[in-house]
Amino acid sequence: MVKREGKMKNNKDNIDWNLAGKIVSGEATENEHQKFNIWLEKDNNVDVWNQIQFGLDQTDFVLTKEKIDIDKAWNNVQSKTGLKKRNYKIYYTYAAIAASILIIIGIFLSYPIFNNNNNFTSLKTEESIKQIQLADGSVVNINRNSVLNYPAVFETHERSVSLNGEAFFEIAKDHLHPFVIKTNSVKIKVVGTSFNVKESTDYNLCEVIVKTGVVEVSSLNDSENKVLLNVGEKAIFNSQSQKLIKEENSNRNYLAWKTKEITFKNDYLNSAINLLEEVYNVKINNTETINPETKITATFEKNTIDFIINTINKTHNLTLNYTTKE
Asked: Is 70 exposed, middle or buried (0-12, 13-18, 19+ CB in 10 A)?
């Protein structure tokens, strides 16, 4: 498990707090969203933002259970960011305060519940797939090049984590404490179910596919923009257009990265090659010799990439080989 406390502290000083406030409140323009996404891609800024989002999830709980000195929180914001109080409205209800990113960040920086680094872990998988069991018994399989942020103990009415990348969740049932996952663009809420989440920043898309149970998916910037998914359905959210759609899942191999169980049914071989590269983390060579119209029908169950490549070569009279990605 990889902890990133020191780096996070430094990166908080580089946040454009005005822009962050607009992102959270849903007031950011398309250009501002693009600017924010550029910032996210630098250094470990995704980890920083995910930790702040985790802090946001705790705000209602802290405001109602603890005696928070709002003036102290604001003074902390001023000392950290240089922002002037006269530029922002002062909110008086707990719900409104929770919506104010600047006040929340002040609380986040001031109070131990948010700065208890021993209670919060950022797990980055890099070039390997990892499985972890959370404190509530939920199991998460995390794909390569992904980041999961989670607490050692769930201390609020919601069991909250954040994800950047792809993971398969098997959530332990607890009707009193819903499980919430936040990505950079959507919020996923469940009680007990299993589903796959995949966010592709290259294509501004986030995809949620339900294997068991029921899942609610909503836009991070607009909680009213939401869909309810049942078994065999998926949601696709476009962070650029803010469009959220629901449809039947036709991708039979969406869990192949985890299970290594792959089924091709009259699929184009070139598309099959792309999937194999993703699942086995390899680069397949000599693909230029493949006829674009060539199709494949086959089932592979936990086979090695060597076996699969050899089978394809013999079946289609090819000379494909592969190299492992670094």
From this structure: middle
Distances from the Cα of 224 to the Cαs of 26, 114, 190, 221, 228, in angstroms? 12, 28, 17, 9, 12
Dig out the tokens for 61 from the structure.
């709980």
**What region, left, alpha or beta, does residue 75 occupy, with left being phi > 0 and alpha being psi -120 to 50 degrees?**
alpha
What's the token pair of residue 82?
A: 């240089």
Q: Tell me the pairing of strands 215-219 and 186-190.
A: antiparallel
- Using left for φ > 0, alpha for ψ between -120 and 50, and beta otherwise, residue 266 falls in left
Q: How far apart are CA 220 and CA 23, in angstroms?
A: 9
Place of tokens 């920083």: 48
Which residues of the chain, if any, have pLDDT below 70? 1-14, 17, 24-27, 43-44, 46-48, 50-119, 326
CA-to-CA distance for 97 and 100, rounded, in angstroms? 5
Q: How far apart are CA 224 and CA 271, in angstroms?
A: 36
Q: What is the pLDDT of residue 290?
A: 95
Q: Which two tokens stand for residue 310?
A: 């050899």
Helix (H, G, I), strand (E, B) or coil at 150: strand
Give pTM, 2 decimals: 0.68
The Cβ of residue 18 has, within 10 Å, a number of other Cβ atoms equal to 14
- Kindly list the strands in the beta sheet with 166-170, ordered across the sheet, starting from the edge strand earlier in the chain: 130-133, 139-142, 166-170, 194-200, 205-212, 233-238, 243-248
